[in-house]
Amino acid sequence: MSGEFSALARLSAQLTALEPPQIGIGDDAAVVRSPKGEWLVLAADTVVAGVHADLSLTDLDDLGWKAVAANVSDIAAMGACPSHLLVTVAGPPDTDLDLLYRGITQAAAAWSCPVVGGDLANASILVVTVTITGSLPGPPIQRRGAHPGDGIWVTGALGLSAAGLRELRKVGKGATGLAPDRHRRPQPSVAAGLAARAAGATAMIDVSDGLAADLGHLADASGVGLAVDYVPLGEGATEQEAIAGGEDYVLAFTAADDAAVLHAFAALPPPMRIGTCQGDPNLRRILGRPFPQHAGWEHEWR
After folding, report:
1. Strands 225-228 and 284-286
2. What's the pLDDT score for residue 155?
3. Rounded distance, CA 247 to CA 161, Å?
4. Angle, in degrees to the nearest 10, between helices 60-76 and 97-110
5. Is the model's pLDDT at 264 over the cut of 50?
6. CA-to-CA separations, 180 to 136, 147, 174, 188, in angstroms, rounded
7. Contacts for 114 with CB less than 8 Å, ≥ 6 apart
8. Where are the domains of the chain?
9. Is 61:106 a contact under the CB 8 Å cutoff?
10. Of 2, 151, 215, 275, which one has the fewest beta carbons inside 10 Å?
11. What's 2-135's CATH class?
């Protein structure tokens, strides 16, 4: 078996490349021009019961919320604003669609991106696929663009979702507290993405697969090394959960001017500088140790 990212690289070679400055596969979202010349941001994500959510520990409305939140986070990672959603649901006939859509519509309202269409189909397991559109107030912030000497920042504490899942497995659905709540209903921040844009962010990615894995994607795209000397732990999270746990949906970005970052985030929770980009692309250290080789979530494919 090979991993998801190897499979994506193989498949991308079969796809027609977009003419720059359009962006195709390989970033958090695609950016294309409409026939009228306007920029359109596109992303899609799938949530599978038993893979992305254990329905013995969380409810269907939470799964619906997470399906939307994952897409909103991808839009935020481009420094863009979400606009509209398409939702496709495939699942057993007895699926409680009303409960599922309660979470979907609550998340859609939270980020002002209404559901405008989709599809229903029967399947042996529940699969929810969300496509999102977004708009750009300026050029997209890509994973590539970081330079040696840029600061590495994150917009929130890490490991909360992984810690929440651990607590839910220990206590069950009745688990309470910040970590279980963040696992059930992650809170990506579009405002943080826009603030990073205002701060002159040179590269950005959302932390969905884990800090080490996602910073690795950013470093690969930018051709830089990484020295991370601080990892902010979410409430109750272990260091391992913060480094390798997924689904935090905070943003990691790089920027050259620390003062500009703090100024841009003056009206928001302040981001945390966790390290510095390095000139040697082979240098990747976190808390004084080499980056873990197999950190974070990755689906298996042949």
Report:
1. parallel
2. 98
3. 6
4. 30
5. yes
6. 33, 36, 9, 16
7. 84, 85, 108
8. 2-135, 151-293
9. yes
10. 2
11. alpha beta
